[in-house]
User: What shape does this take?
Amino acid sequence: MMLLILFSAFMLSCMSGFIIIPLSPVILDIISPLNETRHREQMFRVTYFLDDDQYFYAIYFHSLWCAFIITMIAVTIDSLYIQIVHHDSALFAICGQALITARKSTDVDTNKTYTEWLRQCLTMHNDALQLFEMLDDSSRRSYFFQILLTMIGMTVTAVQAVMNLHQPEEALRIGLFLVAQQFHLLIITLPGQVITDHSFELTNDIYRSMWYNMPINVQRVLHMMQMRSSKPCKLTAGGIYEMNIENFGTTFKTCVSYFTVLLSLGD
Assistant: This one.
């Protein structure tokens, strides 16, 4: 829950800075007027086929509305997806905790409570695996295009920020957009790492249970669970890029490399 609040607050903060900075010349004209009107830049460099000075506020509020809607859609969809992934991770964690708690039983052959726990655990593990498969199938294409577009966007945005260093306000605005892109990439990567860790942790939970005191048929079932959980559940982008922190670092380094190459070509 804290992750979702942090994500929403950070993205909305970056959006607020992005949309407020273009109004700084207007605010300065009121606070510290000059003999002439300060130059004003629109939020986006888009041609409306209108006089930018005469219709500045109309164009600005249209851009503001578009930026707000796009940001809210991204925050809402990503937040919902993160909640679903954490729910699936919780199923793995609860299943493992049930096995660990059950080791307190001294007579597992006749303990009906333990038998019920085991049945629920198997059902929960199966539900968690099915939910993971649905998540992976539904997000592969989306993740692929998000990673691809984010890498391109981060590289181009970084170049724009450097090229506009002589304009502090423009560089700051582009810098906010760059930071938001990096944070968004981290946020969509974290759920993949979380579900991988929780699905693999079930193997250790089975080891910590009293599997050696259980009936042979139960041991066989747990052995099957252990074999499956030894292969972690991994969310992927297009089936070729695993969503984890290690690959996030690799992607970030790749973007920095591309940025360096483009910057050198510009020189």
Observations:
- The chain is about 75% helix and 0% strand.
- The chain has a mean pLDDT of 79.
- The radius of gyration is 26 Å.
